# Entry
Amino acid sequence: MFFAIFLSPLIETFIFQWLVYEQLIAFSFFKKRIYFIILISGFIFGVIHSFSIEYQFFAFVLGCYLCFVYYYFKTYSKYAFLAVFIIHAVRNLLVVLGQFYLKS
# Structure
């Protein structure tokens, strides 16, 4: 449970939002095309979550959203990583609680 709620969002935020965004934004092509970074980040995030095709699609959409949030907070504040981590952790917490509730 600790892994799903804390460690997984921390590691995934680092890899799929921070690392992808920060590496790609260094290229002038991507500076003017942020949506490509968002789509690439979402695609990688979706591919990694390969439980089923439906789950991959959901993870792609979630990955795009998280990268957009990273971009937004990177542009307008200095807490982009923290914002994405919190959103991801809360989402995972809700999933864990939902699974626990459905089992009982």
Summary: Residues 53-76 form the longest helix (24 residues). The chain has a mean pLDDT of 94. Residues 71 and 77 are 10 Å apart (CA to CA).
